[in-house]
Amino acid sequence: VLSSDEIIAKSQKKLSHGRFEHCVRVSQTAKELAKHYGVDENQAALAGFVHDYAKEVSVEEYIETIKSQDFDQDLLNYNRGIWHGIVGAYYIEKELKITNSAILTAVKRHTTADTEMTDLDKIVFMADYIEPARHFPGVEEARKLTNQNLDLGVAYQLQQTLIYLIKNNFKVYPKTLASYNVWNVK
Ligand code: DGI
Ligand code: FE
Ligand code: FE
Ligand code: FE
């Protein structure tokens, strides 16, 4: 087990300054949401802090890892945007020695969401979207909904993300669409 100082030091080395600061803000936001929703605050703070740990791993290294570590080979059809959560958890376990499956799963689900999510998963997913330095149109609505009910926040984020992906002709990862279908039921 690494100390929190060691996890912070390794993250600082792995990430640009700006992304490291984003991780600190997501950690704080996740901790606040955890307090509000009766979830383990330390677990939320740690999951939030490490969620983007692998965001700057090189494309070459990701491809090598996906090929050698028994990942779904369909991942090769996507990019770092998708890889840094699903494959990122592998780096967090290997390099930060975090083995807690609730934390690793929250990291895996933080970009695409999933059809099944724990409150911790939802908290990390939403904290990433609404941390204080996020300024896109709709972020105030996202903050309001997330404080009312986590599921409303998740549904809103998935809707906004799908609109954005389709508007910009980006590929939709099947899990993102499946999640939209589950969390936006009408
Ligand atoms: O890592 P962050 O930038 O802090 O945030 P994130 O991990 O939530 O990534 C957000 C980005 O991921 C956002 O630009 C939308 C993109 N994304 C989410 N679902 C999909 C996706 N990109 C593609 N191509 N396909 C998806 O299904
Ligand atoms: Fe991310
Ligand atoms: Fe996110
Ligand atoms: Fe993030």
TrEMBL record:
An MF annotation (GO) of this entry: nucleotide binding
**Sorted UniProt keywords:** Hydrolase, Iron, Metal-binding, Nucleotide-binding
| Enzyme Commission number(s) of this protein | 3.6.1.41
Q: Which reaction equations make up its catalytic activity?
A: P(1),P(4)-bis(5'-adenosyl) tetraphosphate + H2O = 2 ADP + 2 H(+)
Residue ranges of domain HD in the record: 19-133
Going by the entry's taxonomy, the superkingdom of the source organism is recorded as Bacteria
UniProt xrefs under InterPro entries: Diverse_Catalytic_Enzymes, HD/PDEase_dom, HD_domain, YqeK
Q: What is this protein called?
A: bis(5'-nucleosyl)-tetraphosphatase (symmetrical)
- The protein's organism comes out as Holzapfeliella floricola DSM 23037 = JCM 16512
